[in-house]
Design goal:
The chain is an alpha+beta fold. It has eight helices and 16 strands. α2 crosses α6 and α3 crosses α6.
Amino acid sequence: MSTDFKSIPIIDVSPLVAKFDDPNMAQDPIVCEVVKQLDQACREAGFFYVKGHGIADSLIKDVRMMAREFFSLPYEEKLKIKMTPATGYRGYQRIGENVTEGTPDMHEAIDGYREIKPGMYGDLGKPMEGCNQWPANPPSFKTRIEEYIALCSDLSRKILRGIALALGGSANELEGDIAGDAFWVFRMIGYPGVSESRDLAENDIGCGAHTDYGLLTLVNQDDDITALQVRNLSGEWISAPPIPGTFVCNIGDMLKPHQLQIWANGLYDSTLHQVINNSPKYRVCVAYFHETNFDAAIEASDICIKRIGGTRKTGRAVYGEHLVSKVKTNFA
């Protein structure tokens, strides 16, 4: 459960990046300090900034620039990669097409998922089968995005090793049947700015209050616009202003103490967050979501049950079922 935090902590994960494959990483005092910080951040806020991640700033900015260039295209051009159920919910969605709790969101986006071949997960995966739709121009778009996704996936695995240690498990506790073949979700999102012709109304929200579906999210946001807000225990919305060179990172529903199967058994909670762009500038955000295996059946771990006194507080769920149920109700 989150606390009455007033700001979001910054964590330098470079020791985790450096010691990722070291079998003795759990004994390294510098790694142990990072693990302690991760544990505190996940307990108190469910959000933290990540620095020392090793991904080139030039690539981080380049990905945002490509998103901005795409969203500036004429509507007819963007529709060439329109998202539909027939595309496995992959591709472009117009402003207002994404829905949170029944309310249209004021953003447009390109959605991508780890590609699923026909029959790969049987009936469970059928709604998500398909190939990602990326813009044809620039020609380097697909290659650049796939490079970025691979690096985000690698970074997420390293952070999750720290979180696994924080929960009292081995470094690779969240791999294997849980996330050894991790699924991923990728969104490039554009939020129109407020103008004289479009004042900010009470329900004019870029993305409504929600939690994320999977294990871990990495948010790459514009450096000059504060729009992401995180809710603390008292219900206050705490801003997550951009810090150049960092990702905003948050934990998702698969480490959540209720509603689903949760590996952490209530020790950590996914935190409600929303986006309100009250700037006159158009805002771009690129979000990478690191998930469990698509067909993983997640339930409370024995380690976490023991850590909170032997009580199982959560149920059991299959990630793919959770994702499909969300996706089918998220679009107008």
